[in-house]
Write a structure and sequence with these properties.
The chain contains no helices and 18 strands. It has 296 residues and is mainly beta.
Length: 296
């Protein structure tokens, strides 16, 4: 559980996943995953560790991935693998986040794999949090790389799974994505954009500005069969945002609002509506947490 995106353990018997390029997954006892951190354009930070399970026997969380910062004077050809993956965790603990891959080369080519995946929780499905994906970027003059660039969040489905990490796509090109990856907050410009092979492209937001990443595609954009362009669960955190749900200190919590008002709980009001109905670009607001008993 070390690093700026370390997973949390709220004193229960599960550990949450570490975060870096993507947020770490929650644990079953509602311990939150580690936050995103670092640079998406020049990633050189280490990944963060998942939380350990302190109840009963000490089961350690997974280590975060390391950092590969590679400068090449002429040509880099990748037919194998360059990786900075997070480590899997022990039983019930949280997986480590992916680390960094940053390449500075005149010419990049090959059909290999650049990979900064998060680590699995120790007993996947029962349920420590999975590690979030890391960050990958390269600065090249000639890009002939036709391989795979991947930064998957790992773990069980739903909130226990770490979110995907980021790849800093070169602006203005023809981009085909056949892997799981995320776009960091900011402006992204493509000539064409195609999702294929069941890929998920997550679009991250920025809570300080309340806005999501912006995608501008000059020509065709294709989201293929079985593919997903997603911002699910990538808005404000619990109890945050202009339409955050409220909690009066009791054991029930209200829902967040945005286009519609959040639902009331037994004793607390739901979040209000806000933003534009004709040009909606704001992030959704989080529902309130339940602080009584265990933190949910």
């Amino acid at each position: 559980g070390l690093g700026p995106g370390a997973g949390w353990n709220s004193g229960g018997d599960r550990g949450a996943g570490g975060g870096y390029g993507g947020r770490g997954g929650y644990a079953l006892d509602s311990s939150p995953g580690g936050p995103t951190n670092g640079s998406a354009t020049m990633p050189t930070s280490l990944g963060s560790g998942g939380a350990s399970r302190p109840v009963g026997a000490l089961n350690p969380g997974g280590y975060g991935g390391g950092a590969v910062y590679l400068t090449v004077g002429n040509r880099l050809r990748v037919e194998g693998t360059i990786s900075a993956n997070g480590a899997d965790a022990a039983y019930y603990a949280g997986g480590g986040s992916g680390g960094s891959i940053y390449l500075v080369v005149p010419t990049l080519e090959g059909n290999g794999l650049l990979c900064a995946d998060g680590g699995y929780s120790g007993f996947d499905g029962d349920s420590g949090g999975g590690g979030g994906g890391g960050r990958i970027a390269y600065s090249v003059s000639t890009n002939n790389f036709a391989g795979t660039v991947r930064a998957q969040g790992k773990g069980s489905a739903g909130r226990y799974k770490g979110r995907h990490g980021t790849f800093n796509f070169p602006n203005g090109g023809d981009v085909t994505i056949g892997w799981d990856i995320a776009l960091a907050w900011g402006d992204h410009v493509f000539n064409t954009l195609t999702l294929t092979n069941g890929a998920t492209l997550e679009v991250q937001g920025d809570a300080t500005s309340s806005n999501s990443a912006t995608l501008v595609v000059s020509n065709d954009c294709v989201v293929g069969t079985g593919c997903t362009l997603s911002a699910n669960g990538l808005g404000f955190g619990p109890g945050q945002g202009p339409g955050a749900g409220s909690n009066r200190g009791m054991d029930r919590a209200a829902g967040g609002g945005y286009g519609g008002r959040g639902g009331y709980s037994w004793d607390s009001a739901g979040g209000t509506t806000y933003g534009s109905a004709v040009m909606p670009t704001n992030l959704g607001s989080g529902g309130a947490s339940r602080p009584v008993g265990g933190l949910n």
